[in-house]
Amino acid sequence: MNDSNAAQRVIQDLRARVRDSSPGTRLPSVRELTVAHQASPVTVSEAIRHLVAQGLVEARPGRGTFVAARPEPPHAPDLSWQTVALGPRRFGESEMQALLALPPAGAIPLTGGYLDADLQPAAALGAALARVARQPAAWQRGPAEGREDLRDWFARAAGGGLRARDLVICPGGQAALSSALRALAAPGDTLLVESPTYLGALAAARASGLHVVPVPADRDGVLPDQLAAAFARTGARLFYCQPLFANPTGASLAEHRRAAVMAAVRANGAFLIEDDYARDLVIDADVPPPLAAGDPDGHVVYLRSLTKSAAPGLRIAAIGARGPAGSRLRAARLLDDFFVAGPLQQAALEFVTGPAWGRHLRALRRDLKVRRDALLTALHRHLPDLVPPVIPRGGLHLWARLPDGTDDTGLATAAAAEGVVVFPGRPWFAAEPPAAHLRLTYAAAPPDLMDEAVRRLARAFRH
Predict the structure, then answer these.
(1) CA quadruple 159, 164, 167, 170: dihedral positive or negative?
(2) Which of 88, 128, 170, 281 is the most buried (most CB within 10 A)?
(3) What is the separation of C-alpha 133 from the centre of its chain, rounded to a whole number of angstroms?
(4) Closest by Cα among 426, 463, 445, 458 to 199
(5) Quick check: 375 pLDDT over 90?
(6) Does position 66 have pLDDT exceeding 70, yes or no?
(7) Separation between Cα atoms, residue 327 and residue 425, nearest integer Å
(8) Of 347, 339, 460, 353, nearest to 409 (Cα)?
(9) Of the candidates 256, 263, 201, which has an alpha carbon nearest to the alpha carbon of residue 428?
(10) How would you class 260 by CB atoms within 10 Å of its CB: exposed for 0-12, middle for 13-18, buried for 19 or more?
């Protein structure tokens, strides 16, 4: 006799009895089931244990087997109380989630803050990390402020205005920026920003309880006279600035404005947070040194990340300042997460100090140019009104002004329905936007898809 078949007969018999009986009903004994199904006692006992495990029957030693009590239907959780307990949502949360969302399958991304996988030096990074991972010392705790040799590399890359001891290693630029805002300002203080500016900076500032005041900017960066007026009107002591290929506009602070901007900062006893995220994203420009390189008196707080120029998984950045401001930055980072993982720091150091770094930057410069030009060609062909008047010579984005009366959010929704993902311009403004814009990213999709992406965007305009 096949024990497996016999066990199935017993299970089916008991299932039918359980279905037709109320909880607590006594089921046939092992002896009775053995006779009824011509099965061995071992087979019958195994079948009963199977149903006990499923919660259908209950075995009571010395008394027999009974139909188990049926569980109560699951109670639908009521989480509505959390709305009252948490209060209103923070500014920028939903926008940041949308900004970091992965594109749906089949969609062409013209948005994003990181390099397309084809542009990332994944092989070189993987090789560096594999070498480091085999070294036991890499897994030990290092200095809380980060490896000195890595901090020294960031200091030299900043033009010599900072020293290794002025810097602290952070897990990415966003973490560094959030820490800086908390360390250098108190809730209720004012932060001046270029208008428009990086969405993540606006979100971090509002999360820190800061009052954000926009300062007008144009193709040559922030307007120095408007910056001085904003300092005078608000009493602010903190200005967030992207002097090189600003996100989202792609504008760079012009040479003739750099001295005036720094003069306004110094005259008001303020700090300028220099977000130098795009220094490695040059396409066809000769870039000036960071503002930090010419700042002997410690007004510039310098931030640079490797994440944008290498890969999203390389969460390595550095932020630093001279004097007490640097001490406060290091203390804030210690409270946030103690230190950055040692293997990742050492792998980053091996990568940027080896030949692979130079090769990557040269290839990246060529590839970004191809992609930027492919997007511009597609815009000229299908949506010429969206071609920016000034073409950024680095960075990752084009800032396209939309025709008057266009709803940028509605257009982004319509574009998604057509299979192309773009990001509306409204969230990049700290106050009312003067006009509707789209931020179009050319680093997130291959050049041979740019024409199709803009075709889809053009169809969205017609809806």
Answers:
(1) positive
(2) 170
(3) 25
(4) 426
(5) yes
(6) yes
(7) 36
(8) 460
(9) 201
(10) middle
The torsion defined by the Cα of 396, 194, 286 and 383, in degrees rounded to 10, comes to: 40
Question: For residue 448, which amino acid is it?
Answer: D
> Phi/psi zone of residue 10: left (φ > 0), alpha (ψ -120 to 50 degrees), beta?
alpha
Nearest Cα neighbor of 439 from 172, 104, 180, 200 is 200
Is residue 39 a contact partner of residue 7, using CB atoms and an 8 Å limit?
yes
Residues 328-340: pLDDT tens digits? 888 887 777 777 7
Distance CA 138, CA 149 (A): 14
Both structure tokens of 202: 């606006």
From edge to edge, which strands make up the β-sheet containing 397-401? 397-401, 437-441, 423-424
The HSE-up count of residue 311 (CA atoms within 13 Å, CB side) is 19
CA-to-CA distance for 216 and 394, rounded, in angstroms? 21
Q: How far apart are the first and last CA of the chain?
A: 71
Q: Which two tokens stand for residue 27?
A: 């089921």
Residue 75: count other Cβ atoms within 10 Å of its Cβ.
Answer: 6
For residue 417, what is the DSSP state? H
What is the distance between the alpha carbons of residues 325 and 223, in angstroms, rounded to a whole number? 26
- One-letter amino acid for residue 97 of the chain: Q
Q: What is the token pair recorded at 274?
A: 């220099």
Closest CA to 4 of 52, 37, 26, 36: 37
- For the chain, the maximum distance between any two Cα atoms, rounded to a whole number of angstroms, is 101
CA separation for the pair 316, 174 (Å, rounded) = 10
d(CA 442, CA 395): 9
Place of tokens 């989202």: 248
CA of 264: how far to CAs of 111, 181, 227, 314, in Å?
34, 20, 7, 35
| Structure token pair of residue 119 | 């542009």
d(CA 157, CA 146): 16
β-strands 108-109, 420-421 pairing: parallel
143-196: pLDDT as tens digits? 778 889 999 999 998 888 899 999 999 988 889 999 999 999 999 999 999 999
If we measure between CA atoms, which residue out of 109, 101, 104 comes closest to residue 445?
A: 109
